Amino acid sequence: MKFFFFSVFSLFTILSFSQYVEDAPWVKELHKTNKKNSYTIKEIANAFDAYWKKHQDEKDKKGSGYKPFKRWENHWKLQMDKNGYPISNKTIQQQWEAKQSLQRNSNDVSNWQNLGPYTQLSKSGQGRLNVIAVDPNNPNTYYVGAPAGGIWKSIDAGLSWTPLSDYLPQIGVSGIAIDPNNSDIIYIATGDDDANDTYSVGVMKSIDGGITWNTTGLQFTNSGETSGEIYINPSDSNMLWVATSVGAFKTIDGGQNWNLILAGNIRDLKLHPNNPSIIYAASSNAFYRSTNAGDTFTAVTSGLPASSNRIVIDVTPANPNIVYLLSANSSYQFGGLYKSTDSGVSFSRTNEYDDIFNSSQAWYDLALTVSDNNENIVFVGVLDIWKSTDGGNDFVKINNWYAPSEPAYTHADIHFLRYFNGDLYCGSDGGIYKSTNDGISFTELNEGLSISQIYRIANARQNATNIAGGLQDNGGFGYSNNNWNQYHGGDGMDCAVDPNNPNKYYGFSQYGGSLNVTYDGGLTGQGVVSAPEQGNWITPMFMNNDGELFAGFSKLYQLTAINTWFPLSGSIFAGRISNIEIAPNDVNTIFVSSFTSLYKSTDKGFNFTQIYTATNTISSIEINNDNPNIIYLTTSSGENGQVLKSVDAGNSFTDITGNLPSESKLIIKHVPHNFDNDLYVGTSLGVYHINDTMANWETFATNLPNVPVMDLEINFNDHKLLAATYGRGVFVTDITIVPPADDIQLVTIETPNDNVLCGDTLSPEILVKNQGTNVINEVNFNYDIDGTPYTYTYNGQIQSLQTATISLPNITGLSLGEHLMQVTATIPNDAYIENNTSYTKFYINSISNPTNLNTFNNPINDSWMVTGTQQVWEIANPTTTNLGVNSNIGYVTVASSNYPDNVSSYLTSPCYDMTVFSSATMKFDLAFDLEQDWDVLYVQYSVDQGDNWEVLGDASDPNWYNSNYSANQLTIGKQWTGTDATIKEYSHDVSFLNNEPNVIFRFAFLSDQAVNNEGVLIDNFVIEGVAAINENELSNTIHIYPNPSNGIYTIERKTNTSLSIGVYDITGKRVYFNTNESNTKFTINLSNLENGVYFVNLKSDKDSVTKKIIKN
Q: Which site in 152, 288, 1008, 1075 is 20 to 30 Å from 734, CA atoms measured?
């Protein structure tokens, strides 16, 4: 098919605002002071900074519009030409064609699979949408357009989704039109018309239901053009209209040829519901009307505001003569809703004057729709969604972006609202939502929609299935147990996984503003510490093999043991730090980069020397895992991205870009412990591969969409390569690793692993893997606890590429509290000693009688532990204003002042044997003064020595939590929050734990990054209950006589396994205790006890039995 090519270079107006969002206020200011046809990214960024210097008070407000620009800036800084302008669409097209040519000649053995995120537990979504369409011939067929993830299709009303444009170069989709006479014919208007986050190729067409796509006669070659609303004449399928950033266009031959019918930045377009000859169009500041199918337009001013900075419009078949027009004023705030009852000839303002935008970012997202059944039901969306039922005279906000538990919740930032077949659809920064009851409630339809724009990922050393990711718009996501969960909000950025704990993820928000952590693979999360200063939009972090976390701002910082940032270096760099790399075998050797400059430290970051200056901005640093003198760099020029290699520790570099296409190079990774020295590079169009056996780079892209790959992670243990894409989520593929003859990897310390052990005995278990080709027959372990050394030799076979869990000898007599353990595993002729060592910490806990009343009066005799990021709990009488009214001495979170920010502190009980009870109740006294709905306290319990913790009870339980709020990061829907400062008793049934011999309870106290109150006071903790009776179990092996007795009892049994013996009175109080009894016949003397009924509990490693005895 031959198309007429409409050249955008033929129009001067097209060139004026080609590479950014024209409606942004700083762009308008720039054009006033510096009239040019186009601007560099730096010029636009400078204008942005100047604008916000005048609006400092609004910058951090939700909905200010600050973050959308920083996203745009970060994206296009990676795609600049040599003069600082965004590269053209034509250049990107040429780079894609070069990649296709290389792929045809590659021996590509990759097989990428998408990991999502496809969904998550909350309704907040996982990626931005610009447009939604429903097939006019099939109400169960939906299409959605993502700004970076292309077009997707569902044939089951949104229950599942299929991508339709993965084989194309990455495109945004902001408009979709389906032929009402033939559903196989679909048109898409490409580009990101709200944020210009990706590029546009104009209008594309499919004639097979979206399976394949072709360009039409309307194509864009410059970098900033976008297209949006697109409509098909319902009476003539060959006639279409489309709104673009350079004007409105019309075709009468199904897209082969297009005519410009209205010049300017046309932001919206609508057809009269009954008469397609009447067309309405809106630029940023004007409304136009056509009565001849768009051949000519007339500007309409009657009743409309004299000035607007953005306009959107909508119509309804419920009354075809009505047109609603929504205006954003010069500050991009609410400028009024205007209504026409004469098909757009004249307008009048409705009576709504309140600020229904709640933001100043209407240049980025602004949506309006009218019910297709009721002309008076109107919805407006910017930050949240507002609804009117009286034709726009009065609006009510129906949801809140911060409250996912609300029935009408949608993610913040509303880009699209429209009715189809009586149902309301919303497209937001979180995805697609549908309401079947005019906005009373929404259903999220994002499951299967993998459109996340991911900046960075991190992967656990132990496996490829524990992943942390930073998502644009959607915060920090964690992947574990085959599920994705959001563990912090904001924009997710760089992240790290603790090398010794695969479930502990760290994640930054934008600018490094907040460091967040999850201890359970993303299920829950909390803030750790705020930024010491402002970093880059993507502030880098790096965790070394010792589990130490570093971050790059204007200085290099290290996270301390008490979760504060300690500055290591001075501010000696060319600017803020962009990349950090630490040598895998030498924690003292650190490389950082800033812009084009590379710096090196050999003293763990205290002093740096600039060692190299690249031609373009350095986008990543990688140290060869087996040779610290080999360093790799990538650079992010949009026209000449490079891969560089140094063999002299960074003193000089050679260009190894070779036959790679010229696109921006974003990330490079070296496969560790692999004789072939495999390298993988992620670029703005995919992944490439080379190793020592190959003369040239090859594509590594089977089933990988043509999208920017922002980050790569290699999991050596599982032989996997993971890719973070900007628009299509996370992908994973197998990689080939050539193993050495002899190599052992210490995968993890399985026990202990940051848990709480009951008693003073440690039984370590170590997971190792044979990464060599030879069978391993012997493994030598050198390990220490707090510096005390131990050794052990394991004799047993481990086959090639197999794992084994090895038990080390027990260590007894450990003191209560925190301990550190280091383990090193070695074998003869071990090829790589770098993967032989691991670290962990653990806690030794006391064993106590659950019926003991804990009055917390004397710290010396106290057996409770305090753990967490900050140990704020102390035994004292509070002296603060609210909690100080109580005379109790107990555990309090800082006795004399308010608690700190970013606290995660746990008050942990001793280990309790709950088998002594047939029923039991926990009781304690509590007073609290916490920031309402932000800072929280709740009770958890563990039955596996701290490996897993569960929250005890719900807010609906009697005499328990006072809040079920779940909208904020720390509120889990069952907690104490707010203020009840007079101490009172709380209780909860714990009888369900009566079969558990080792139960630990803890009070979890968590505070966010701002506003703090007086805290919490806890006193008089006790477990009360009815003692258990067991007359039948093990009756053939345990015999107690005489019974009744005057106090001397003989106990006989058939085996000599070690027993612990506890005797309890009728109240559950323990009155006798003995451990390590191994005789088959022995006596216990209870002569000093009062006469009555008692219960003897005998417990071995495998079993427990309770017998009733009587003393008379």
A: 152
Rounded CA gap, 980 and 231, in Å?
A: 59
Mean pLDDT, range 209-233, rounded to an integer? 92
Would you call 201 helix, strand, or coil by DSSP?
coil
Stretch(es) of the chain classified as CATH 2.60.40.3080: 1038-1111
Model pLDDT, residue 1033? 44
Task: Tell me how many degrees the CA angle 546-551-557 measures, rounded to the nearest 5.
Answer: 85
β-pair partners for 105? none
Helix axis angle for 25-33 and 41-53, nearest 10°, is: 110
Nearest Cα neighbor of 768 from 838, 671, 828, 715 is 838
Give, in words, the CATH class of 847-1025: mainly beta
Sheet of 1081-1085, strands arranged across:
1038-1041, 1048-1053, 1081-1085
Domain with CATH 2.60.120.260 in the chain: 847-1025
What is the secondary structure of 743-800 as a DSSP string? Answer: -EEEEEEEESSS-EEESS-B--EEEEEE-SSSPEEEEEEEEEETTEEEEEEEEEEE-T
User: 1025 by DSSP, 3-state: which?
Assistant: strand
Please provide the average confidence, as pLDDT, over all residues in the chain.
91
Taking phi over 0 as left and psi of -120 to 50 as alpha, with beta for the rest, 984 belongs to beta
Identify the CA nearest to 497 among candidates 487, 483, 511, 489.
487
Q: Look at the chain and count its residues.
A: 1112
Class of the CATH-defined domain 1038-1111: mainly beta
498-521: average pLDDT: 94
Could you tell me where in the chain the CATH 2.60.40.10 domains are found? 744-841
Phi, psi of 314, rounded to the nearest 5 degrees: -155, 160
Bridge partner residues of 839 (DSSP) = 822
pLDDT band at 1 (very low <50, low <70, confident <90, very high): very low
- The residue behind tokens 């707090």 is 786
Let me know if domain 466-613 sits in CATH 2.130.10.10.
yes
Is the pLDDT at 1068 greater than 70? The verdict is: no
3-state secondary structure 977-1015: CCEEEEEEEEEEECHHHCCCCCEEEEEEEECCCCCCCCE
| Confidence at residue 1072, expressed as pLDDT on a 0 to 100 scale | 85
The pLDDT of residue 225 is 85
Residues in contact with 1051: Cβ distance below 8 Å, sequence separation at least 6, in sequence order: 1038, 1039, 1040, 1061, 1081, 1082, 1083, 1084, 1096, 1098
Helix or strand or coil: residue 145? strand
Given this model, what pLDDT does residue 1028 score? 67
pTM, two decimals, is 0.85
The pLDDT tens digits for 440-493 are 999 999 999 999 999 999 999 999 999 999 999 899 999 999 999 999 988 999
At residue 1061, does pLDDT exceed 60? yes
CA distance 990 to 1008: 30
123 DSSP assignment: S
Q: 320 pLDDT exceeds 80? A: yes
* Interatomic CA distance for residues 147 and 174, integer angstroms: 7
- Was domain 142-389+402-444 assigned CATH 2.130.10.10? yes
Do 665 and 622 touch, CB atoms closer than 8 A? no
d(CA 211, CA 167): 10
Which string of DSSP letters, residue by residue, matches 355-382? -SS-SS-TTT--EEEE-SS-TT-EEEES
Is pLDDT above 90 for 62? no
- Looking at the chain, which residues constitute the CATH 2.130.10.10 domain(s)? 142-389+402-444, 466-613
Backbone φ and ψ for 75, nearest 5 degrees, come out as -65, -50
Among the ranges given (2-6, 31-35, 566-570), the one the predictor scored with the smallest mean pLDDT: 2-6
pLDDT computed for residue 74 by the predictor: 86
**Cis before 850 (ω within 30):** no
Q: Which fold has domain 744-841?
A: Immunoglobulin-like (2.60.40)
Q: How far apart are CA 678 and CA 109, in angstroms?
A: 13
